[in-house]
Amino acid sequence: MKGVDPRGAVVAITGASAGIGWVSALAFARAGSRLALAARRVDRLEALAAEVRALGSEALVMAADVASAADVRRFVDAAVERFGRLDVMVNNAGAGVRGSVEEICAGDLSPDLLRRLGAR
Fold first, then answer.
1. What DSSP element (H or E) covers 43?
2. What are the residue ranges in the chain where pLDDT is below 70?
3. How far apart are CA 9 and CA 6, in angstroms?
4. Residue 93: its pLDDT value, please?
5. Under 8 Å CB-to-CB from 41, ≥6 apart: which residues?
6. Which CATH number fits domain 10-94: 3.40.1280.10, 3.40.50.300, 3.40.50.720, 3.20.170.40?
């Protein structure tokens, strides 16, 4: 299977406001990709977009929470509308529970929290 050439590719990244998402966005920008960037923290996305543009790439910024299917759909639709297609989707955003096993098991593992974490 042939890979996607990053030069000119349209790459959508969730969780782009920090960490792996941020670094991935800069790597794709350096390679010449056009980027759609999503996260809950738009102020951080705007700062990232400024770095991406300084590298000569295009960036679309959008607030989105991956726990919301509607947000994800709007993000993908906006990327395709802006760039005409979507070549790569980096599903980087996620949620987790922090604490020791004892703390987590003794805590409130509500049905809503379990749904957000993908438990069945």
1. helix 42-54
2. 1-2, 95-120
3. 5
4. 87
5. 17, 18
6. 3.40.50.720
